[in-house]
Amino acid sequence: MLTKRLSARPPSETRLSLGIQWKHSGRSSDQKCLFSLELVTPNMPNYPKSQPKGPMEKCGPPCTRCGIRGIKDFCEPRIQYQKEKIRRDQKEKLPKSSVVRREAPDRGLYHPELTGMDWFTSYFLSGKNFEQLAPKFVPHYSTLISKAGGILTQESVERIRRVFQEGNLKEVVEEIQEALQKSENAPLDVAVIGQSGSGKSSFINALLGLGHEEEGSAHVGVVPTTMKKTPYQHPKYPSVTFWDLPGTGTPNSLPDSYLEIVGDDDYDFFIIISSSRFSSNDALLAQKIKEKGKNFYSVRTMVDVELHSEEKSKPISFKKERVLQQIRDDHLASLSNIGVSNPCVFLVSNFHPDKFDFPRLQETLLQDLPAHKRYTFVLQLSNLSDAFIEVKRVILKEKIWLNALKSAALAIIPFMAFFSGFDLPKQEKCLNLYRSYFGLDEQSVKEIAQKLGTSVQEIKSSTKSLDFWLFVKNDSIAAKAMKCAESFCSVNGGLRSSIFQFLKVYFLRLKFINTVADDVKMLLHKTLES
Q1: 440-480 per-position pLDDT tens digit
Q2: What positions does the domain IRG-type G occupy (predicted)?
Q3: Is 104 part of any domain?
Q4: Of the candidates 67, 168, 29, 56, the residue with the CA atom closest to the CA atom of residue 511
């Protein structure tokens, strides 16, 4: 129970009390205070006398602090806002403000301004049981997924909804866990095929984010280097494999062998690479892949070289957009001639993956993949733009929400919260994992520092997520008090424990994700400006 104690205190201080109470035999007179904590904190500046600002405008996100200080920072601006709003309404003789307690269509009463939570989470924490939440699960989940789609299959979502309806906590946990494991461990195999010398190996290295001389990169040379199909696993995510297939158009390449490769069911999709006009070999491959009912994407590489040559030969009449459109139209016409409906052509430069159609290609691949393979694919995406960082952030937040829901279901069972805790070592491991996802691990930070011509220490001082202990440092007394309260709830289980687990897992991980993503954006902008 979180309350603000209004008493005779200096105007610069606010007292915030946290208490846990328990009832005997359902009578309020039998309540006993098992634990309480009072903190003295500075007041926020008063709002100006003009129309008060919204409660979310003057405060950071709810995940900006840890533990009890996080709850204080989370609620204090909203309490301040409500107090000011009521004062103004009384002065202007308006009806009593309902800014905190609000009626939602078909959803009852919830507290969006005070909590900053969505209605589903508010329902969950207000004591609604799982059977009552079941009809709301699917509609709410659809609001959490990115525009590219979610990471759970339709079947998984429906199974989770069904066990919610049945009220079986054990099965709720098992279904969410199984769906997440399926998403995390899904293998992804991409076949890269096309003319010899078209830049297949360079294209694979661009997708992997590796230089041509780095360990694990595809072999690149001026003569054909791929004589048999060669797998290249992603250095961070071994479940992602790009297959470099032997080039067509050479004396050693046999059409029959390619038809066998196309019939191989091991590949999720094909990428047909060409560096010039769409050839008869490319058309044959595209036709056979289409007959097998598999997806393929036509990629024209070396467009930067084509543009440079065109500009050099026609300096007066050269127009970049016109040349790119001519190349695109030529490929589209070739694909239409072999019966490919709604063909997609992507113009890329292997040495400039942040330009031309490379980002659009990755976005298209993400949308077209089966839902359970999107998570695997999105992790290996390079941070080419703010848009890609946001896609990765949204998909990771979707997973955080599902994990928090699982933890809350576990926490309702007595003692289970002890076994599913989120202590400091686990928090540090979680933060390091998110940094790795966004390319802020130790090795990546060194490479960024080298690109910017600065030191690693300078990079760390300009970011918030690279020093864990500074990031999560908290008032020691408040932290111990929170630990005591959490231990009590863990032993007794029930709704109190569920709320603690949900808040702890959800908001802390949101804090980690948001901070890391913001750091990556800041460093990306610095890199582009340098």
Answers
A1: 988 889 988 888 888 999 998 888 888 887 777 654 433 44
A2: 186-368
A3: no
A4: 67
Residue 44 resides in a domain: yes
Q: C-alpha angle 479/483/489, rounded to 5°? A: 145
**Lowest mean pLDDT: which of 321-335, 472-486, 511-525?**
472-486
CATH number for position 259: 3.40.50.300
Helix spans in 16-104 (H): 67-91
What's the domain count of the chain? 3
Given 91, 107, 129, the domain boundary residue is 91
Q: Which residues pair with 233 in a beta bridge?
A: 241
Residues 253 and 356 in one domain: yes
Q: How far is CA 341 from CA 31, 263, 334, in A?
A: 71, 21, 11
Q: Is the pLDDT of residue 17 over 80?
A: no
Q: Are residues 465 and 343 in the same domain?
A: no
- Decide which of 91, 108, 143 is a domain's last residue: 91
Output the CA torsion sign for 324, 199, 240, 403: negative
Q: What one-letter code names the amino acid at 210?
A: L
Q: Report yes or no: 151 and 372 within 8 Å, Cβ to Cβ.
A: yes
Distance of CA 467 to the CA centre of its chain: 21
Beta partners for residue 85, in sequence order: none
- Regarding whether 261 and 202 lie in a shared domain, the answer is yes
Dist. CA 195–CA 46, nearest whole Å? 68
Query: Domain containing 353: what range?
Result: 188-379
Q: Residue 97: inside a domain, yes or no? A: no
pTM attached to this predicted model: 0.70
Intra-chain end-to-end CA distance of the chain, in Å: 51
